[in-house]
Design a protein that fits this description.
By secondary structure, the chain is an alpha+beta fold. It has a domain at about 40-85. About 20% of the residues lie in helices and about 10% in strands. It is built from one helix and two strands, in the order ββα. It has one helix at about 40-60, and strands spanning about 20-25, 30-35. It has a two-stranded antiparallel ribbon with strand order 1-2. The chain is elongated and about 50 Å long.
Length: about 90
């Protein structure tokens, strides 16, 4: 059984609400995880889009889905190093 609560609040800190990501797994043993403060969703979405840029550039022409591209991951350093030589417009 999976139960998800996803409340949306505008400026919860203004009314003294502590926010975070909470994962509770009931079993043997029980697992409780708290990530507070949570990563703001907008920042996570932007990071995913930016980190996918080299994969999109390296992809063959045509329509692709996320299944067709490499698994998203954090790219540290210069993104230009992630682009294959034959895909670079400026060399």
């Amino acid at each position: 059984l999976i139960h998800m609560d996803h409340p949306q609040q505008i400026e919860p800190e203004q009314v003294g609400v502590n926010t975070g990501d909470y994962v509770i797994i009931k079993g043997t043993p029980n697992v409780n995880m708290v990530n507070s403060p949570e990563t703001p969703g907008g920042i996570g979405t932007i990071a995913m889009c930016v980190n996918m840029i080299p994969h999109v550039i390296n992809a063959r022409p045509g329509l692709h889905t996320m299944i067709d591209l490499p698994v998203p991951r954090a790219i540290m350093g210069d993104m230009r190093d992630q682009i294959c030589e034959e895909c670079k417009i400026v060399k």
